[in-house]
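anyone seen this seq b4? input:
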Amino acid sequence: MNDRVVITGLGSVSALGLNTDQFWSSVKEGRSGILPLTGFDNAGLKINLGAQVRAFDPTVHFFSKDVPLLDRYSQFALVACREAIDQAGLAAASLGGAAAVIGTGCGGKETDEATYDHLYRQQKTRAHPFTIPKGMPSAAASQVSMQLSIAGPVFTVSSACSSANHAIAQAALLIRAGVVDVAIAGGTDAPFTYGLLKAWEALRVVSSDNCRPFSADRSGLVLGEGAGMVVLESERHAKGRGASILVRLAGSGMSADAGHITDPSAEGAARAIQAALKDAGLNSQDVDYVNAHGTGTMANDRTETEALHRVFGSDVKSLMVSSTKSMHGHALGASGGLEFVATVLALCEGVIPPTINFTRPGEGCDLDYVPNTAREKDIHVAISNSFAFGGLNAVQVLQAV
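predicted toks r here
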């Protein structure tokens, strides 16, 4: 069948806002969501910054009886999915045969943390009876299915920081294969727990001052949280119901480095980009903008720049490249979803997100990173990169309609 896939709805929750209008306004203004960590006992932590979702009150979004059954990462997923479905103009009654593919890198870490505190710090002998269904990696997908009455294919994708892009790719494949006409997909994560922060601290890739992707004085990533979700439809279905089409999802590309667990490969990343362009039937010369993985680590930024050189050759200098992680932080499995949303809006509005906090180019980082200030420019094709630990790569190609 191989029907063309389009995007008709966007939803997000992030440190930049509790909805997509707030998120996009912050992105365009180059406003950072990275602040000192608050809200839990962080004594003994070396990590003191994060892009937290602030002023998020679960009781505003959910019945009080449901809140105790929803881990924070599931809450984010539901709020973002509802927004995307509302924008798409889809009623709950029409979602019975739809799909939901939800990416996560961590799953219910808040639930895990509370359980370990209960058992080991408080010396209790029993865990809460809903510990497993609340904290399991598939909990968010299950809650999306139940609360939005989605009865088609529903499952979780977990590939670290590429989870959202892999989830979107799987959703698109379901539509192109004729399995469903409508799918909601993206990623969600809520990693701000003491245990997980100590684990990230041990990796020594987290910045103590700020996130400065591609800059010479970059000092690492800054963790974030939230969710980014999109509604995908077959073009035939969207047009048939008179939906407003935002962009076309022209192609997806995936690859594995098959190399090192934490050291990225330019060759592996380049193969994912090339696969996405081939799937889209486009050439590298067609691409105007790249929403980079852009973590702010020494290894990623240099390797991603090299991958772009490999794919785009002499045309690479005309590319605009930026990292929105400089604003919303590295939200792990949610990052690709937030970045996908930003890329869609860049195409729709002709505004290229900036890489904020940029100082001077780092060694091996010699591209146009749209430093510090958004740029108004009509674009027609953009790609969004996600390159995860373990060498798991996923790239999307988006095209204006």
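The CA atoms of residues 85 and 105 lie 23 Å apart. The chain has two domains: 5-240, 251-400. kinda curious what u guys think
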